[in-house]
Amino acid sequence: MYRYLDFETIGSCNRTCPTCLRNSYPDRDAVASWFGKNYLEEELIYDAVEQALAMGFRGGVCLSHYNEPMMDERLPRIAHAVRSYDKLNTVHLNTNGDFITEELAAQLDGALNFMIITLYMDEPIRSERAEWIRSLFKHTVLRIKVNTGHDTTHFSPSSDLNTLIEERRGNRCDQPNNRVIINHRRQYLLCCDDLIGNFDLGTFPEVGIEEYWNGKRREIANTLSENGGRSWHPHCEICPR
Known about the structure:
Layout: E1 4-7, H1 21-24, H2 42-55, E2 60-62, H3 75-83, E3 90-95, H4 102-108, E4 114-118, H5 125-136, E5 141-145, H6 161-168, E6 179-182, E7 188-189, H7 209-214, H8 216-224, H9 234-237
Parallel strand pairs: 1-2, 1-6, 2-3, 3-4, 4-5
Antiparallel strand pairs: 6-7
């Protein structure tokens, strides 16, 4: 069983970090919808959670992917609604923290079990903002990261990119077994390095959660779990993770 069920509730992000896959991806037409306020339908999120729970899923729900979730004005309502499914282990998200206000913090505190916050401003502003954010949350656990980079991923401008690709080319990969990811276009994504739906895994709800998990994805996961399995697909073959 997968550990996480991830939703990209909105495509937008306010930052244009060159090391982020959404900004380094060479096919700009393919990523165009991430640069506008395009939403995943709210009712589909709850439908997917209920389907996962019916399968026996008891893991965590993440309310972000390659986006800034706090640009979605529906976020507090969605977080509270998902948190109300008491069989879930956790509800969390990743954010750059730029949109946190006292009002938004009050709405999210306790609805999220934890937040991973990466602050992308320079010192001393970064430390001051981290301290201020911590003062706003009493129930949600905060994991504030103080670095300003991203993990090296596809098409990254990192000087280590080609070295990492060569080092990992023959490695096994178990990422497709960790989570179910649905982006704002309703596409199933194979892993955290799949931005645009490179593997033609279908869309939700046309393909249900159980059908997705036990269908084509399983065949791909089995292939990737073998030595040299990354060579089966061009996107996996150039993965630096």
